[in-house]
Amino acid sequence: MAKETAPAAEGKTKVNRREFLNLAWLASLGFLTVNVAGITYLFAMPRFKEGEFGGVYTVGTVGELPAVDSAPINIPKVKLWISNTDQGVTALYKVCTHLGCLYNWSDQDEIFACPCHGSQFNLDGEYIQGPAPRSLDRFVVRIVDPQTNEILAEAPNGEPLQVPDDPNALIQVDTGQRIQGKAHA
Predict the structure, then answer these.
(1) Looking at the domain assignment, is residue 94 inside a domain?
(2) 3-class SS at 81?
(3) Residues 7, 56: Cα–Cα separation, whole Å
(4) Which domain, by its residues, includes 65?
(5) Which residue of 19, 102, 118, 161 is surrounded by the most CB atoms within 10 Å?
(6) pLDDT at position 27, please?
(7) CB atoms within 10 A of CB 26
(8) Is there a domain that residue 89 lies in?
């Protein structure tokens, strides 16, 4: 005697094994696509925040600057030196222009000296000697009013910035705007 099967509800058909596997495969492919798209979106978002390399970093106030022509301020968190010369304040990128070594300030010789290959630079980052092809790279420096956040002075081309008389004015460095040093002859 043949087995009778219950009739399918009107308008509904049963899903056979092949259709079920196709639907499961397409659903898993859809989940994979959504996950990859989400991860790609999160990876592509910029992560630079205030006070990190690649963003605007507040160094301190004008009153905290070192005396003119004295040793520069080392700020290792954002890889820069703050140098105060008679021409003004300069923010120097802490990476040598020769092969990317981190250079240091020599108190004895009063120069920046690269320990890798001996390139030397003066207090404002200008090339003195060595294999470096150009002077040190710089960042854009701004002097900002602490109450109004109004820019009082700015050096958009990386040149030294004259410091205003207000000792409470903030010094900000935009580490997202690196300006290449001048090539030497």
Answers:
(1) yes
(2) strand
(3) 72
(4) 56-179
(5) 161
(6) 94
(7) 10
(8) yes
